[in-house]
Amino acid sequence: MSPEQTSLAFRANSVCALEDSALRAAMKQATDTFGTKRADAFAPVADLEALRDRASAIRDDVLANLPMYVDRFVASATRAGAVVHRAEDAATAREIVRTILADRGARRIVKGKSMVSEEVDLNSHLEAAGMEVVETDLGEYIIQMEGETPSHIIVPAIHKNRRQVGRLFADRLGVPYSDDPQALTKIARKALREKFLSADAGISGANFAATDTGSLVLVTNEGNGRMVTTVPPLHVAILSVEKMLPSLADLPAFLRLLPRSATGQTITSYVSVITGPRKPGDATGAKELHIVLLDNGRTEILAGESRDILKCIRCGACMNVCPVYRTVGGHAYGWTYPGPMGIILTTLLTGMKKSHPLVDASTLCGACVDVCPVRVPLVDLILGLRKRKVREGFADPRERRGMEAFGKAAAKPALFALGQRLAGAFWPLVRALGGKDVAGRMPSPAKTPLRRRLP
Amino acid sequence: MRVLLFGTCLVDTFFPEAGEATVRLLRRFGAEPVFPKGQTCCGQPAFNAGYEAQARAAAEHFLREFDGDDPIVTPSGSCAAMVKHHYPRLFRDDPKLLAKAKRAGERIHELTQFLVHVAKAHEAGLRGKGTVTYHASCHLTRSLGVREEPLTLLSSLKGAAFLPMPDAARCCGFGGTFMAKLPEISCALADEKAASIEATGADTVTGCDSGCLMNIADAMRRRGTKIRVVHIAQLLAEGL
Question: Among residues A281, A299, A317, which one ends one of the domains?
């Protein structure tokens, strides 16, 4: 499906989500579980803080030298036999992928989980060209069947419970209803197996790209990623430019951090390192490998004050601990990326005009900063975007007037004290005049403020 | 020891009892609190909403009012964190104010920090009563790094039982202007916090930030729960 961005309706979206008791229960259960598993997985990692420092420093280095690293990756990957394409924006990326597939007569496509492909809305474009695109990650398979988009970057169907999935499978696949996760997985596996074996091409994302070897690294759990990248004769990988790691030797640090942060696993079931297409004598691998490197605004972000968001390695830990995300789920954010990293990335990639309510969708509690494995200063970045929102004129005019008055009163004690007295005198009126959301939840100002009680 | 008391705008306007309790505590432990009369607000409402010029105006005023070398004590983790961590950023381009901001950051103590590290109040045998649980407010815990001090004080109370709250440091949904901009989510988070508090079975919940306590008290009212919500300064001062 081709989703319209609804970030401007964040508040209305969140009100809908708050009324969805199934969603709220599923979100609470899943995020609580991830929180516990993450803590357990990191408990024995004695050098965690040093590890985070190291990973953070590597990501800083990548950003500081990104054009050089991208060039190096292109050269290495090309040497390894891959064909590398550069896509300036989403439309270009979609068209590159479609052309690669169409030129080879590919009609049946299997797909591994890729948030970048969601960002560029790849599926609808390929489907419009008459191709069948089947998502093979179990969560993605579920939401594709439901006509939804992922509500979490790691766990796309986090908002659904097993009874909903059971009913969906019974409806769409004509299988007997079951809400047993193992039975449901078996059903999906059987349906997907046929798709893998008959596919003309596989599309995947990548978690990292090693610039010294030209390798793509995929960190996955279900085995579908390996099937997508090795069974069909053609493999197209799409990834954004900031996924670079200087060297394959940097990978272990990230493999210690990413699965623990994401799912609380010490390691995922599969870690695939793909260096070029199948070579003579190789037992597996796609015969042809194309890599599409997407910019889509990253170069501009890199030059700006929010560049640190590009350090993100997409573990999803920030959303699992975010009080707002945990409560309303990912769809409320109205675009591809939800939660704290999503607030920042969505605003930067789609523009303030399409997303400004998102920058207020944080209590600034800082729980995300505590868990980010690569030390992205998420709260500072959100604060920076709030300044931009005000600067660019997207703030509510009433808020602006209020804050301008605040600025004056805060520097003039007499005015401040007067404001205090007026608030006290007019509080019932403030409450009556639609201030119930705020004033209605606050007590009345004290008859005598502290400043007049103390000597 | 002379200390400058920063009441904070919320305590000054809505919860003066917490400010008075802070004064009683400071005096009991040998400090002489002075309340600079010209004080207003640390500037956090404007800073967090993206109004840097207004935040700067408030911060400059604060630095004037609280100039000198005396320690500054405030009954708020959030406002202390604002001064300590955000003032230096506000004045990054102004060497003179930057130096003052850094100095203020070194001088400012959140109340429980001062009570434990300077006044040793936890060794004074303060009295308490009933059962108490504690909400660890976000900026106090994560920005200022004050985790143990309130617990040290609360568990030192003679005659009161301290009951830990699950996920004590999870946000209550106040978030300053967040409360006004996304009231539905704010209330949902406050409800979740209230449920955690109720689950402890405590008759009193306390914390170090009036904003959070106000939000929690509102959730308690909505839910018809009879748990007392009180600032830690008042709770401790009752045991003097």
Answer: A299
The total of structural domains in chain A comes to: 2
Say if A129 is an interface residue toward chain B (CB within 8 Å): no
Percent of the residues in chain A that have a pLDDT greater than 70, as a whole number? 99
A378 vs A347: CA distance, rounded Å: 13
For A252, residues 6+ apart whose C-beta sits below 8 A from its C-beta are: none
Interchain CB contact of A18 with B (< 8 Å):
yes
Which residues of chain B are within 8 Å of residue A397 when distances are taken between CB atoms? none
Rg of chain A, C-alpha, whole Å: 25
Q: CB count, 10 Å around CB of A8?
A: 15
Interface of A with B in 404-423 (CB under 8 A): 404, 406-413, 416, 420, 423
The interface predicted TM-score (ipTM) is 0.97
Last residue of a domain, one of B62, B83, B116: B116
Q: In chain A, positions 342-371, which contact chain B (CB-CB < 8 Å)?
A: 359-367, 369-370
Q: Are B149 and B219 in the same domain?
A: yes
- Residue A362's nearest CA partner among A379, A384, A337, A387 is A379
> Distance (Å, rounded) from C-alpha A142 to C-alpha A131?
19
Burial of A105 (0-12, 13-18, 19+ CB in 10 A): exposed
A413 in Cβ contact with B37 (< 8 Å): yes
Q: What is the pLDDT of residues A223-275, one digit of tens each?
A: 999 999 999 999 999 999 999 999 999 999 999 999 999 999 999 999 999 99
pLDDT by residue, tens only, chain B of 240 residues: 999 999 999 999 999 999 999 999 999 999 999 999 999 999 999 999 999 999 999 999 999 999 999 999 999 999 999 999 999 999 999 999 999 999 999 999 999 999 999 999 999 999 999 999 999 999 999 999 999 999 999 999 999 999 999 999 999 999 999 999 999 999 999 999 999 999 999 999 999 999 999 999 999 999 999 999 999 999 999 999
**Nearest-CA distance from A383 to chain B in Å?**
6
Closest Cβ opposite residue B49 in set A328, A386, A449 = A386
Measured between CA atoms, how close is B3 to chain A, in angstroms? 14
Q: Which chain A residues are Cβ-neighbours of B170 within 8 angstroms?
A: 323, 365, 367
Which of A11, A370, A410 is the closest to B182 by Cβ? A11
Give the global pTM: 0.97
Q: Are residues B139 and B218 in the same domain?
A: yes
Task: Report residue B29 as tokens.
Answer: 């432990």
Q: Touching check for A453 and chain B: CB below 8 Å?
A: yes
Q: Give the domain extent around B62.
A: 2-116
Please state whether B204 falls in left (phi above 0), alpha (psi between -120 and 50) or beta.
beta
